[in-house]
Amino acid sequence: MPLPRKSQAQARRLRLLTLLADGEFRSGEQLAKRLRISRGGIWKLVHTLQALGIEIESVARQGYRLPRPVDLLNKETLLASIPPEARQLLGRTDVLLTVDSTNRHVYDSTDMLPGKGQLCIAELQNAGRGRRGRSWLAPFGSGICMSIGWQFEESPPTFPALSLAVGVAVAKALRRFGAADVGLKWPNDLIWKGRKLGGILVEMRGESGGPATVVIGIGINVHMPAAIRLTLAEQQAALIADVREMLRERTPSRNELAAALTEEIIGMLMVFAESGFEPFVDEWRRLDTLEHAPVKVLNGAEITLGTACGVDIDGTLLVDVNGELRRFASGEVSVRAVSR
Questions:
Q1: Domain shared by 262 and 330, yes or no
Q2: Structural domains of the chain, count
Q3: Across residues 183-206, what is the average pLDDT?
Q4: pTM of the predicted model, to two decimals?
Q5: Between 138 and 44, whose confidence is greater?
Q6: Within a 10 A sphere around the Cβ of 309, how many other Cβ atoms?
Q7: Which residues constitute the domain of residue 126?
Q8: What is the pLDDT of residue 165?
Q9: pLDDT the model gives residue 209
Q10: Which member of 131, 176, 195, 244 is catalytic?
C-alpha cells in the first residue's frame, strides 16, 4: 500500500538529509538519481528544508551540502541502543523530522497506558516550550529535543518533585559518557561550569489518589553553532554549554544519548511510582549548584533575597531569609551578586 502524499514528502526529505549528512557536496544530478526524481525536484526539496530552518549550502558546479556533518536521529538505531528490559516498557515511539512541540505531541496522544512509556524525539520543533512560557530554540542537528509520557496508576508520593528526580536521571545518563561534573539548578536546569547545558519541563495532570499522567520534556545542547549560542545567551540572559564542549572526542551520537536518557528516565519512573522523591533526594543535593549561594527568588510578583539551603524531602527549595527558613514550591531562582 503506497504511503500518503504527506508521508512520501516527509520520507523524501529524510532521504535527502541522509545523503547530505556527512557534510560533503553532492551534485543535484547525483541526488536526483538516488531519490529517483528530477533535479528540479531536488531543488524544491532543498528549498522546503531551508524553509523549515535547515541550513543547506548550494554552490554552482559543486552541488549541495550541510555546513557540517550531522548524526541524524533514527528510530531503529535509537531503539536498538535501549536495553530490552527498558525497551519493553516503551509503547509508541515517534522519531520525527518536525513537530510543533514534542511535549504537546505526547500530551495530546490517546495511546498512553499505565506502566508504558511513550517517546517522541524530533530534529526540529517550531513551538518548543521551556519554563514560564518561554520558547526552546534547538537548531537542526544541534541537540536533543525529546519527551517521554508516562501514566501512573495513582499519584506517587511527593508528585510535584518529579522534575527534580528527572534531573537526577538525566545527570546519571550523561555520566555514562564521562560527563561527571554536570550539576542541577532548582527546579529543572542542567548546568556545566556555571552555564546552561539543558532544561526539563514536566507537565502533569491527575487527581489526588487517582491515575496521574506526566509528560517529561528534555532539551540538551549537544553541538550548538557559535551564532546560535550567542542568540540563546542573549534571549535567556544565560551562557550556554554543550555536550561536545564537555566531552570532545568522547561525545556520543544523539541516538546513543537519547537511548541512555530514555533508559534512565524509565528506570527512575518505576522507582518514583513506589517511593516518590526520597530515593533521589541525596543525589540531587550532591548535584545542587545553588546550595549556600546568595539567591533571588521570583515567585509571581514577589521577590525574595536570601541564601539557598538545598531542598526538602518534597522537593521544595529552602532559602534562609534573615535567619528564617522559607520554602518555595515554585519560582524562578538566580544567583545574585553580593557587594563587598
A1: no
A2: 3
A3: 92
A4: 0.91
A5: 44
A6: 18
A7: 75-286
A8: 98
A9: 63
A10: 131
CATH number at residue 229: 3.30.930.10
State the CATH number of the domain containing residue 315: 2.30.30.100
Question: pLDDT class for 125, splitting at 50, 70, 90?
Answer: confident
Among this protein's residues, is 132 annotated catalytic? no
pLDDT by residue (tens digit) across 219-244?
Answer: 999 998 877 777 766 766 668 899 99
Q: Examine the residue annotation and report whether 336 is marked as an active-site residue of this protein.
A: yes
Annotated catalytic residue, options 13, 104, 196, 254: 196
Please indicate whether residue 196 is annotated as part of the active site: yes
